[in-house]
Design goal:
It contains three helices and twelve strands. With 177 residues, it is mainly beta.
Length: 177
Amino acid sequence: MTFMHLADFAGAKYIDEEAYADYLHENRSRFPPRALAFASAEWHYDYNHSRCPHDASLLTLQVIEDKAAESEFRKIDIRVRLLGAYHDGHIDLAYLNVQKFSVNVYAFKELSCFRGFGDWLIDEIRLLELGRVVHEVQWSNAKWQIECDDIDCRWTPIPGASRAEDHLGSIFDPPKQ
């Protein structure tokens, strides 16, 4: 990743997103609108917010090739569904008009098996030539990079699930009555 990285602060790991926030702000007029909205959303790096992808888990990853196209060049979209970190909603991502993608998963040698993608750790969206973007996501057991024209993100609450904001109050908040 270019901007996002795990930093060490007094022995604890944290994600330093200050340089990335500056990059997004400086280049906001060049970003595709939906990718910018997702990347710069207040909740994106707020780990107490239900919509934050950090610690979300992968439910589905679909590569959709438009076979109806008459050209030898077919349009590819990628659709992803995540279960939010607090299990109170789904994060749906749509990567539109994908130009290139790679997915690297890590097998555990001592177990001789694949243990899934694990948790979403950090991500960043960067500009490419011709107004495209690349979304790089580091999972606990995998990594992917997807180059596309734009990224759409939608949040769908799970009916009956408690919201993270309901159970993550500050110790300074007055007790609920």
